[in-house]
Each structure stands twice: as structure tokens, then as C-alpha cells.
Amino acid sequence: MQTEIEIKFFVTSDIQDSLSNFLNSLEIISSDQARLGNVYFDTPALDLRRLDMGLRIRRSDHFSEQTIKCRGQVVGGLHARPEYNAPIDGSLPTLSAFPAEIWPSPVVRDEIQSRLVAQFSTDFLRRHWLVAFDGALIELAWDRGEIVGVLGRSGIDELELEIKSGEPAALFGLAEQLAALGGLRLGAQSKAQRGYRLAGLGKPLAVQPLQRIEGKDQKASITLGMQHWQYHEQHWLESGDAGEQQRALHALLEGISLVAEAAGTLTVPPSWLADLQAQQRLMMQVAGDRASLHALFHHADLVGLQLSIAAWLHLGE
Fold first, then answer.
1. For residue 111, how far is the Cα from the chain centroid?
2. Residue 283, CB half-sphere, CA atoms under 13 Å: how many?
3. DSSP assignment, residue 49?
4. What backbone phi and psi angles, to 5 degrees, belong to 126?
5. Does the pLDDT of residue 317 top 60, yes or no?
């Protein structure tokens, strides 16, 4: 088992030249590329999804591997989930290849095994570089391809940073430099989450009520506010309905307000708290201008702010 700790960006514009120049400034240990085909599995009743698990078989010219990812957390584009990998020869995953303790019981595991079916697939070219940065080894991967489900296809254009060794602070440091290039947004949705929706198995994005946390756990409130903010930012960007966008923006601002309110009771970096309040005011000022809001949600300053909050939550500094 390993805990996958990565930061995911969605690429929103042509970054080829800026990324090349950026890579030239780094200490690259190795680089490679591979075409990866992935098939994701679940039961018709989505038993794995209910357990907050994701199961896939990944193949390239050089290997075949089955992977299961277990319950984790996504905040500010930082994805942290336990995952287990095992080699595979056939076309259907073998759940007994994974540790018994991740399942509610052997009976549940075997029942799921008996009803596994392929649900959707992804296919992409992965270019990746192993980078030595601030005492850590970090893999930077650029995935470009598509997700295919019964409801259609959706493009993949993502940059992922995954720490291989060293301290997580280095991961955030490299991510902040990358975000400053522009043309990137933090990605809170995994390929699997998008795939379930394209397979007609995931709930469409919709405005959600903000469920506040009772008690004095202000750090948990900041986490909740961030998740609410980023969910509704994605909903705003995907929605083509002006009324729904306004409702999503209102919910997004509720999330930001919760982050600011909770942060005001804690010792947080003054810089990101001031930037948060400034971004909130700016969003309210341009609330009726869809083009300005769209540009704001893609601006490097906003991405950098979200990263700063996520770093504070994860590193405590």
C-alpha cells in the first residue's frame, strides 16, 4: 500500500512553450512517455463507489496493472488516497489480490467480485518527468487524451504532481511555481469521478447547501469551505444556464465566507487571508459579468491562493 499524494491541475490554455521553459529551469532526473489505456470497474449497483473505492486496470506496452484506490481526501487540488497495485494478466480485476483488511468482509468482497463489469474507459498519452526539487523527488505528468462513457466523450488535459520521496512542502513549492505560469486551474475532480458521470452513473453537478460543522473545529470548517467553493466553481464553469450560474456563484461565495470566517479565529498567514478577502470582493464586483468571472476563475492569482490555503491545511504552516 502507498498513499498517493498529488496535486492536479486542469490545463486551460496552450502551455507548451511556458512548460518547456519551466522544465529547462529544473533538475530533471529522467523523462519518458507512454500511451495508457484504463478501464474502470464497478458493479451495476455501484458497490465500490458506495465504499468510496475506485478500481481500474491500466495497460501500456510495458505492463498491465490493477489498482484500487480507497477513501481519501481532496482539498484545494491536493489528492491524498491510499492505493494498492497488483499485476494482472486477465481482463477482469481480481479483488483477492488486494489486502483483506480494506474490505468490510470477505463475503462483501466476493459478492462485489461476482458482479464486476466495465463502466467506462480513459485513454491518454502521459509524458512524465522525475524532478529533484527542494530535497524531494516529484513526478510531473502531463496527461492528454479522453474519457469515454455511454453518454459521450470528454477531453483529458491535466498536469499532475506526485511526490515520490521527500517532504510534502516541496510538492506545494513546485506547484506554486507551476501555477504562476498561468493556463492552469486546480482540479478537484478525478478522472474516475468524471468517468462515472459520462457513464450515466454519477450525479450531475448541482448547487448544494452548505453544511456547517458544529463545534470549534475551525480547521475542519476551512476544509469544508474550500470543498464547497471549488465544487461550485466547477459547477459554474460547466453550466450553460445563467440562472444556475448565479446560484452556483452564490454558493461559491458562501464557501469563501466560511473559509474567511474560520480563518479569522486562527493564526493563518496574513497574506492569504487578505488575498482571500480581496478575491471575494472582486467576485462580488463582477458577479453580473460572465466573461470577467470566467477570467477570474482561471487567473494564476486565484490558483495560487487556493494552493496557499491547501498548503496551510496540509502542512499546518
1. 30
2. 27
3. H
4. -105, 120
5. no
Q: Which residue has the cell 512548460?
A: 19
Are the beta carbons of 84 and 4 closer than 8 angstroms? no
**Phi, then psi, of 157 in degrees rounded to 5:** -150, 90
Question: How many angstroms separate the CA atoms of 66 and 62, rounded?
Answer: 14
Q: 289: helix, coil or strand? A: coil
Cell digits for 72? 481519501
Find where cell 476563475 sits.
297
pLDDT band at 264 (very low <50, low <70, confident <90, very high): confident
Q: Where are the alpha helices (DSSP H) in 132-188?
A: 168-179
Please give the Cα distance from 93 to 222 (Å, whole number): 38
The candidate with the shortest Cα–Cα distance to 146, out of 119, 128, 118, 125, is 125
Contact 313, 221 (CB under 8 A): no
Mean pLDDT on 129-148:
97
- pLDDT at residue 216 greater than cutoff 80: no
More confident residue, 50 or 213: 50
Residues 89-101: what's their mean pLDDT?
94
C-alpha distances (whole Å) from 101 to each of 38, 92, 114, 175, 221 are 25, 21, 19, 34, 31
* DSSP annotation of 180: T
Tell me how far apart the alpha carbons of residues 100 and 232 are, in angstroms, rounded to a whole number: 37
The pLDDT, as a whole number, for residue 76 is 61
Q: Whole-model pTM?
A: 0.88
3-class secondary structure per residue, 195-235: HHHHCCCCCCCCCCCCCCCCCCCHHHHHHHHHHHHHHHHHH
CB 231 within 8 A of CB 77: no
State phi, psi for 89 to the nearest 5 degrees. -110, -35
* CB count in 10 Å sphere of residue 129: 18
